């Protein structure tokens, strides 16, 4: 708790451009929840380093991510939006928690196994200890709630395990966070291979809607979305993964239920439905894109918000870090 409010924490990696999956699975929920909680949102640049980054592009992506958070509707004067690398407590608590995490636990992480398989030439220790840094992110702010997509569920579980283990030894140091995974939108699938998650790193550009794609591109990608050989717009994840994914996307964007959507399009074919989904998504993203351009043009405004929020995040994170250091018996600083 900070004051009267519970704490919400989340973040995204500062790699590439966000996808519709990042938006519907996480960012849109953050905006919906932000009034009720004391919110911290990190631009997770340290996490991005598990893959090789091109420094100038990386710097640009991190700023772009900051601007996208704001453009999506998170007011940086009410929400603490900050750069992870500007708060050294993340790396410090990450190390301390590594000493309370078992190799066996980390070896079971599916994201580690997937990424190690994809990048066999760069299976670095950072990739392996990634969930510990993520646990440090969350625990530093004593978060009650962490809104994420389904793919982060396992990381939330290990975070809770590490925090519980630490608390069992040293008393109530950390708040145990609850994941918040929305009923629809928590796993947006690829438009080309709807059995797989929509992902920034997909090599096929038609598989992924990027948040900064223009209207024509969005509509074209939806028109090309892989579906099935039937004609019926019916939700069935097993047998009709493509159509079910489109129903989910349309449902999150319009607020209509799956049943309402099935009824609305019961007479039309796939073509009309795909067009409707494309138009709805493009209309949803248009104001965000306009606001994003304005923000990038206003350097002084973003810089001022970054500076004040960095300080707020440092203050909050350092309070937890000092508490942990003391519990562990590290010698206190002489003032
Ligand atoms: P990242 O950057 O991969 O993704 C950011 C958020 O977007 C969600 N997401 C999706 N949701 C639905 N459908 C999809 N296709 C889809 N793709 C991505 C993710 O679940 C996530 O919520 N490890 C985290 C970043 C992180 C973090 C944290 C998150 C670092 N520290 C602390 C919360 C709290 C990650 O790689 O997310």
Summarize the structure.
The protein is 54% helix and 7% strand.
Would you mind describing this structure in some detail?
- By secondary structure, the chain is mainly alpha-helical.
- It has two domains: 6-181 and 299-328, HUPs (Rossmann fold), CATH 3.40.50; 205-293, Tyrosyl-Transfer RNA Synthetase.
- Helices cover 54% and strands 7% of the residues.
- The protein contains 13 helices and five strands.
- The chain has helices at residues 20-33, 45-48, 55-71, 89-98, 103-107, 110-118, 125-140, 153-170, 215-223, 241-254, 258-264, 270-297, 299-328; strands at residues 7-13, 38-44, 80-83, 145-147, 178-180.
- It has a three-stranded parallel beta sheet with strand order 1-2-3. A two-stranded parallel ribbon has the order 4-5.
- Strand 1, helix 1 and strand 2 (38-44) form a beta-alpha-beta unit.
- Helix 4 packs across helix 7, helix 7 (125-140) crosses helix 8 (153-170) and helix 10 packs across helix 12 (270-297).
- The chain is globular.
- The two termini are 28 Å apart.
- The mean pLDDT is 96.
- Bound molecules: tryptophanyl-5'AMP.
- The site of tryptophanyl-5'AMP has 25 residues, from strand 1, helix 1 and helix 7.
């Amino acid at each position: 708790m900070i004051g009267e409010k519970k704490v919400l924490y989340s973040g995204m990696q500062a790699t590439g451009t966000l996808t519709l999956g990042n938006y519907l699975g996480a960012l849109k929920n953050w905006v919906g929840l932000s009034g009720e909680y004391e919110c911290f949102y990190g631009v997770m640049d340290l996490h991005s380093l598990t893959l090789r980054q091109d420094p100038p592009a990386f710097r640009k992506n991190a700023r772009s991510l900051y601007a996208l958070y704001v453009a999506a509707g998170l007011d940086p004067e009410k929400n603490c939006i900050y750069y992870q690398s500007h708060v050294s407590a993340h790396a410090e608590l990450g190390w301390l928690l590594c000493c309370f995490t078992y190799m066996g636990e980390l070896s079971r992480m599916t994201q580690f196994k997937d990424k190690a398989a994809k990048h066999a030439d760069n299976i670095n220790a950072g990739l392996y200890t990634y969930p510990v840094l993520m646990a440090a992110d969350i625990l530093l702010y004593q978060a009650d709630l962490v809104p994420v997509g389904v793919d982060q569920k396992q990381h939330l579980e290990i975070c809770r395990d590490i925090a519980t283990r630490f608390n069992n030894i040293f008393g109530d140091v950390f708040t145990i966070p609850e994941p918040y995974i929305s009923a629809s939108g928590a796993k947006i699938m690829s438009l080309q291979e709807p059995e797989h998650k929509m992902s920034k790193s997909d090599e096929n550009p038609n598989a992924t809607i990027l948040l900064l794609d223009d209207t024509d591109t969005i509509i074209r990608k939806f028109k090309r979305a892989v579906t099935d050989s039937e004609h019926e717009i019916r939700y069935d994840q097993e047998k009709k993964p493509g159509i079910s994914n489109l129903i989910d996307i349309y449902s999150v964007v319009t607020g209509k239920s799956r049943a309402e959507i099935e009824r609305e399009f019961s007479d039309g074919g796939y073509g009309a439905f795909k067009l409707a989904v494309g138009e709805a998504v493009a209309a949803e993203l248009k104001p965000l894109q306009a606001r994003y351009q304005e923000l990038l043009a206003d350097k002084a405004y973003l810089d001022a918000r970054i500076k004040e929020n960095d300080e707020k995040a440092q203050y909050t994170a350092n309070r937890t870090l000092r508490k942990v250091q003391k519990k562990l018996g590290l010698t206190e600083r002489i003032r």
